[in-house]
Amino acid sequence: MLAMMIVAHTPLASALLDFVEHVYGEIPEKIFAIDVPPHEDSKVTLQKLQDLVDTMGSNQEILILTDILGATPNNVAIRLVQKNQAANLRIQILTGVNLPMLLRAVSHRGEPINEVVEKSLLGGQNGVLKMRDTIQLTV
């Protein structure tokens, strides 16, 4: 089964994992939150991610969900992929995580990683709407 890491600025990663627990009644296996505190050295964050990857073993598919493109959580996730290129891992990164994206990823985590990525992206994109255009306002 696909492993997932939610890597985001403190306390967003933990809050997103709490949401998963709220919806599913428990935290499903192999889903982890890594909060990145302000001013933490990115080497420390990278080591946290690497330690987690090392506990998963080889032949693992890992989906990493990060909060903001170009910010430390995303940059560290990219460095993790680069560091593990020689390993027998399939790691995908999605950035801009939101609740619909996260729910799709968790719901479909038993499928091949490429399908999970596509469904998660669609969930994230389709979950962002301008409500005035989608509802009838009555006075």
Write the topology of this structure:
Elements lengths: L2 E7 L2 H13 L6 E6 L5 H15 L4 E6 L5 H12 L6 E6 L3 H9 L5 H14 L13
Parallel strand pairs: 1-2, 1-3, 3-4
Helix pairs in contact: 2-3, 4-5
Question: Which terms would index this structure?
Answer:
single chain; 139 residues; alpha/beta; Rossmann fold; 4 strands; globular
Distance between the termini: 50 Å
What's the helical proportion of residues? Answer: 40-55%
**Main beta sheet strand tally, sense and closure:** 4 strands, parallel
What is the name of the CATH superfamily? Phosphotransferase system, mannose-type IIA component
Give the strand tally. 4
Radius of gyration: 16 Å
Order of neighbouring strands in the sheet with most strands: 2-1-3-4
User: Structural class of the secondary structure composition?
Assistant: alpha/beta
Oligomer: single chain
Q: Would you mind describing this structure in some detail?
A:
- This protein is of the alpha/beta class.
- α2 crosses α3 and α4 runs antiparallel to α5.
- The longest helix is centred in the middle third of the chain and has 15 residues.
Task: Describe the structure concisely for a colleague.
By secondary structure, this protein is of the alpha/beta class. It has helices at residues 12-24, 42-56, 72-83, 99-107, 113-126; strands at residues 3-9, 31-36, 61-66, 90-95.
